[in-house]
Fold this sequence. Notes:
Blueprint: H1 7-15, H2 18-39, H3 47-71, H4 81-89, H5 92-100, H6 102-106, H7 120-135, H8 143-150, H9 153-174, H10 188-213, H11 222-241, H12 243-246
Helix pairs in contact: 1-4, 2-3, 2-5, 3-5, 7-10, 7-11, 8-11, 9-10, 9-11, 10-11
Amino acid sequence: MPMLMTMEMWWLGFTIDPLRLVLLVIFCLPLLVLLSRRVGFEATRGWWEDVVDALFALGISMVTSTVCLVAFGAIGPGMSAREIAGKIAIQVVPASIGALLARSQLGSDGPDEGKRQESYGGEMFLMAVGALFLGFNVAPTEEMIVISHRMTPWHAAALVVLSLMVMHGFIFAVGFRGGTELTPQTPWWSAFIRFTLPGYVIAMAMSLYVLWTFGRLDDAAFEQVIATTIVLGFPSSAGAAAARLIL
């Protein structure tokens, strides 16, 4: 809903490079298949069912986005087919992830129902989804650019440290239920090296990709690219660390 009601998303749907938009949708499909494998609509018995669920989530997201955008007056008569398609397609990623997360967020499963024992790689994947899930909400806003312009190198360094502290606090407090558990006896440096640092790298990579997709890095100097990615990396890293709470 926040994305559907954000004016920057409406403008991006009209101005975004069509190739980047297509790549975003292509990137979304395997992500949805893997997500369905873990926390989809239902417990699936094979990859084919996961693909069907992913396509179903895409369909739900397209219909929901179309209905809401029409209701908000964001799309309507007089607009070109390209503009309408772009405004709907750019909403597909957050809406389809939300559709697949409906059961884990809103369902009434028992505490152990649908839980899967995650491997380390599976936990890193959920971190990536968590980073995208939270970072996507603020990536299209002008504030990302404004904040990065206001920051000095010392501000950027402090924000990196703060992001790592928030991540580590989440990871140590929440752990990874259903996966590699962290206990009070786990040395802080072990969890930091195994989860916090890799998770932050994943969050930064997802932030960089989303910013590139939205054209936020076009014609920007290298220092500005780094600063903007660090700014978006703050909410993205929190989403990565809290993946087990979100997902």
